[in-house]
Every structure is written in structure tokens, then in C-alpha cells.
Amino acid sequence: MHLDFALILTVLTLVTAVFWLIERYYFRRRQAHEEEPEGAHKTVEVVGSLFPVLLLVLVFRSFLFEPFKIPSGSMIPTLWIGDFIVVNKYAYGLRLPVLNSKILETGDPERGDVIVFRFPEDERVNYIKRVVGLPGDTITYRNKVLYINGEPVEQEPAGRWEGVGLNRNRPGTDPVKRLEYLTEDPHPVVIYPSRPNGRFESVTVPEGHYFVMGDNRDQSLDSRSWGFVPEENLVGKAVRIWMHWDCSRGCVDFSRIGDRIE
């Protein structure tokens, strides 16, 4: 069962707003003329006092920044299981909470951005992947190399990938790390040379959609499997790691706190 935290927060904010209005414009005015029952007034006052706090949280979470936890290894080595990240909610437009309708244009995803989005096959679930294909691009993935519009994306060997803790390599695997140049600044990807390449036909990204992939290329459920991300499903751009939690390695890994996500 997936709890819609945005919906819960919005409902709580509206409920406390009603109590805040009652306390401010009903009880206070009546109290000037006659004494009110202490119990009723106190309850309304306490519940109404939560309204400014909840409103602040709602605005901050809906329009500015939102925290997320990384639950899987699909973005290794960029993001690890146990990372807690901050997502910039205004990078790709301001959207109303719950309705998710855009009210202000602020920008579009660029190739190489790490984005959070509502999974097209179950919009109650948030996914995080890297944008590799923009509208109009033709994407091919062959022999563990990404092709964009017929041109291979440069890769540079960067040694073995040595995972640790929750992110340790599975027994019998020998993953390698490569630097991939989607932009001028490369990002790392993990490849399992012994794994079959699989089949993936070339596709052209339709308007208003994006093609995304995980940096852990052989262990990622992404656009190669389920298709494109619609623009209306975008949640925001992942920008920083604010905590890493792995109790197989002493719980908090302070070395990752504050790292930029690139």
C-alpha cells in the first residue's frame, strides 16, 4: 500500500486552516463579549496553531525541495542504497500538490540530469533515473554502449567497481566502472561484462517525453523495459545527498553527506 503523503499533508493543512479561521474570527470575537467554554476553545486553538507550520511544510515540499530515500541499486555508482537525497521541485516547473498540474514554467530536463518522476505504470511510486534521451532523439543501446541519433556516447574505462555494505557486489560478479560522456562532464556507470547484452531496438523519443536509464546499466528497470517518461510525470531534479544510512557499516556514512548529484 502506497501512502500519498502529498494528499495527506494537503488535507491536514486544509483541516487546520478551518480550525485556525474559526479560532481567529469566531472565538476571539465572541470572547470579547462573553466567556467561551474553555475546552472547546482550547481544542480549536491548539489544532489551529498547527496551520502555519503545516502550510510552511506544504509550500516548501511542493514548490521548493523534497527529500527522498534511494531504495534500490539501479543508480549505482552515482547513488547508493541508503542514500537520502534532496530534490529540486522547481527545476522543471511549479506544480500544484496532489493535482500535479503545472502553473509556472521554469525549465526542462537536460541530457544527463538525474530526475525523480512518477512511474508511468504506477504513479503512486517515485522512480529516479538519468535522462539520456530528449524529445526527438533516437536512442539505441547495443553491446553495453549508448547511441544517440546514431552516434555512440564515449565511454572511458575506470577500473573495477567495488561495492560495500548494502551496495556490495553479488558473489560471482565482476562489475566494472566506466565514465560516460553524455555531457562534457562525465558521469560513472557500472557494467557487468559477463551478462548477456539483451535486445533493445532503436526508438525515437516522442514530444513531451524523455528516455531514462539507470547508471547501473545491467541492473536497472528503466525506459528500455517500460518506455518513456511523460513530461507531466516529472517531480524534480536530484541535487544533493543529505545523508547515507547503512547499518552494515556503522549506520551513518558521513563521507557522502553533502555530495552533489551529477
Automatic annotation (TrEMBL):
Membrane-spanning ranges: 6-22, 43-64
Keyword check for Hydrolase: yes
Secretion signal span: none
Top-level taxon: Bacteria
Active site (catalytic residues): S74, K129
Membrane-protein topology: Multi-pass membrane protein
One GO biological process term: signal peptide processing
UniProt keyword Membrane, yes or no: yes
Enzyme class: hydrolase
Record Pfam families: Peptidase_S26 (PF10502)
SUPFAM superfamilies (UniProt xref): LexA/Signal peptidase
Catalytic reaction annotation: Cleavage of hydrophobic, N-terminal signal or leader sequences from secreted and periplasmic proteins
Localization, UniProt: Membrane
UniProt keyword terms in alphabetical order: Hydrolase, Membrane, Protease, Transmembrane, Transmembrane helix
Domain Peptidase S26, residue spans: 45-242
Enzyme Commission number, as recorded: 3.4.21.89
GO cellular component terms given for this protein: membrane
InterPro entries linked: LexA/Signal_pep-like_sf, Pept_S26A_signal_pept_1, Pept_S26A_signal_pept_1_CS, Pept_S26A_signal_pept_1_Lys-AS, Pept_S26A_signal_pept_1_Ser-AS, Peptidase_S26
Gene Ontology MF term list: serine-type endopeptidase activity; signal peptidase activity
Family: Belongs to the peptidase S26 family.
PANTHER family: CHLOROPLAST PROCESSING PEPTIDASE, SIGNAL PEPTIDASE I
Name assigned to this protein: Signal peptidase I
Organism, scientific name: Wenzhouxiangella sediminis
